Amino acid sequence: MNDLTAASRRMAAQEFTEDSLGVASGAAAIRNGEITSEAYTAGLLQRSRALAELNAFITIDEDAVLAAARDADKARAAGSAAPLLGVPFGVKDSYLTKGLPTSLGLDSLAHFVPQEDADAVRAIKRAGALIFGKNNLVEMSYGLTGHNARYGQVKNPYARDRVSGGSSSGSAAAVAAGLVPASLGGDTVGSIRVPASFCGVVGFKPTTGRWPRDGVAPISHTLDTTGAFARSVEDCILLDQVMTGEQAAAQSSNGAYDLKGARLAFAPRQFLELVDPDVEIRFREVVRRLEDAGAEVVEVDLGDDFNALIQTATWGIFAHETMGAISEFLRRHDIPTTFEAIYDGLKPQLRQAWGHIALPGGAGAISAEAYQTALNVSRPEIQRRLDRAFVAHGADVILQPTTPCTAPLIEEQATVHIAGQEVSYLALANHTVSASSVGLPGVSLPVGLSRAGLPIGLELDASLGSDRTLLALARKIEGVFGARPVAI
Fold first, then answer.
1. Cα–Cα dist 19/11, whole Å
2. Strands (E), 206-251
3. pLDDT beneath 50, residues of the chain
4. Which of 127, 309, 445, 483 has its CA 20 to 30 A from that of 359?
């Protein structure tokens, strides 16, 4: 198709947009001359304008992204075979982007334009990707529902009256709605996996530190992890190669649906304790289907106090490191504000939360001694218990529902209802916080819809550093259930 006419290229772009090309397939289509990057990008821009009500993006520079697409087409004509050639990416607006505003979700930084790219942005650009725009997020990435006082609530593409999840809210919604094939996000206690579950896309949190983090606004240097949203595990595998330079694990010749030899663990006492009936029913159906596909599934018990242990330790570390991490980031990257100015400008609920847990002397702030205990006593104990599942039980991954419920209503996001109980919205991260506590790699896969038509996610967590093995197994499990269609 190297000699496509302008009209046929436009038709191809529309077809590819509607069919929602992924990262790997989009780059292949551009490299093979089946579509130009410019035509594909123009189609996505048209779609993003039509779906602006989702509030998935804060910034899109249409002229700049179209110019970058034309440059990609010239590079292709000159023989480039870059792995992400000409593919548009969303980027969470906590990542520094050279020449493109980076707000961190704050009104005060709405017009701040960095002079440098975050390392992860630089990596995808080197691989040929385009920066389509900056995705909406919770202010300073501090929240799980997708609400932003300045830039608006990000809406769930499956139901406009439902939250998208957060803090990487716009990134998940943009991929789910087919506005971009992938987006970079960040995850400290679940900010990739929670919105991935609610929006019905794949969300990948690598082992903490595996992907570059420099140039991304932090919360906790112990817990922060860069990662991505995509429509398929295949695309996450490709991105992991780009970010790390490592090649993917060889695929089995047995086929994507064959799980023979896979050993999967789940801990019902820990991860089905507070779960909506719809989610538990679907999770147990998923377990049965995985067994039918040849996997061995074993039940494990992580201890009566496991949930209390991970909650206390992880949230304590999260809050204790916030002020120092943000202050250092602002200083190192010449961001034209201060921690104190950010605090003063936060929306009331978030300002109250920071004052309670993140400021020294706050009523809910943990002491330096408690912080050291969380790092040096609690985390090793959490790791020991998880290692027992991986080593003593021989498990490749630990399974659980990614979130204990489907996406809550926007109007009920301060307190949510799970299994008939009214609880804090922080409970949305009840299952994702375990991997975050010790830096395990995790991936959320869409595995079906609730009776109300809302996505349900399955989380797979693997041992430290086993990202490639995790992704290879996730790809097989995805083959059992099939990829979810674009939400709109």
1. 12
2. 225-230
3. 1-4, 7-13, 18-19, 252-255
4. 309
What integer pLDDT is reported at residue 485 of this predicted model?
Answer: 74
Nearest to 416, CA basis, from 140, 162, 192: 162
434 classed as catalytic: no
Based on the residue annotation, tell me whether 367 is a catalytic residue of this protein.
no
| 151-156, long-range: CB < 8 A, 24+ apart | 151/55, 151/58, 151/103, 151/105, 152/55, 153/55, 153/410, 154/54, 154/55, 154/56, 155/53, 155/54, 155/55, 155/410, 156/198, 156/199, 156/407, 156/454, 156/487
Which token pair is 355? 């004052």
Catalytic one among 25, 141, 164, 167? 167
Residue 312 main-chain phi, psi, to 5 deg: -65, -50
Task: Supply the pLDDT for residue 484.
Answer: 75
Question: Are the C-beta atoms of 162 and 410 separated by less than 8 Å?
Answer: yes
Lookup: tokens for 41: 């990008």
Residue 246, amino acid? E
Please answer whether residues 47 and 54 qualify as being in contact, where contact means their C-beta atoms are separated by less than 8 angstroms. no
The answer to whether the beta carbons of residues 484 and 200 sit under 8 Å apart is yes
pLDDT reported for residue 118: 98
Answer whether 460's CB lies under 8 Å from 399's CB: yes
Would you state the pLDDT for residue 15?
52
Residue 36 in tokens: 């130009």
Cα 205 to Cα 15, 102, 237, 458, 478, distances in angstroms:
31, 22, 12, 14, 17
CB atoms within 10 A of CB 245: 8
Catalytic one of 37, 48, 92, 220: 92
Region of 441 on the Ramachandran plot (φ > 0 left; ψ -120 to 50 alpha; else beta): beta
- Among residues 48, 94, 164, 191, the one annotated as catalytic is 191
pLDDT the model gives residue 73:
98
Active site (annotated) includes residue 167? yes
Distance of alpha carbon 401 from alpha carbon 404, whole angstroms:
6
Residue in the structure block whose two tokens are 């991490």: 325
